[in-house]
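INTERNAL AUDIT FORM
Audit reference: QA-55
Scope: verify that the stored structure record matches its stored sequence.
Auditor: D.O.
Record contents follow.
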Amino acid sequence: LTALCELRDAYFHDTSSALDMYASVPGLLRVFLSLALFAIAAVALVETYAKEEMQDLRQLYLWLLLIFTIHFCTLPLQVILAVLVSAWWRLKVITFIGLLSRVIVFTMLMVSLRPSRLDLSIMARLEQDNLIAPESGQEEMLEAEDWRSPLEGDDAPDATVAE
């Protein structure tokens, strides 16, 4: 579908006054598919959020919902703005919105998926539901007072090798 949009844009696109490559049937189909994917992801995340009891995972689901909202709704927003913005500013505004949304989404993904205790929370949740067997030594890691994430700062204890 994306290839059809690109081919149409490359061969039949008049850059003087055209709105953009999404003014065709394949382009509109891609916009509607983006909205459909957003709806599916939002419904799944809201249902999962409602069933989840752990606060760390609930926060992750909210972050993911916000990330999906920005990612999937950027394309329809760009198409609407292409109609509203004058031809002189159209390319600049649409390009800026696309780049800004990508920067925001990737930054939010890096923040939400950073190394932290979240992976331990997920493992604890899986053990609670008896989906996996507890790993040896994991209980000690969960209960250790000096465990810190690598991103928590320089005051984390250094790992020393016993000789």
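Auditor finding: record pair retrieved intact. The two ends are 60 Å apart (CA to CA).
Action required: none
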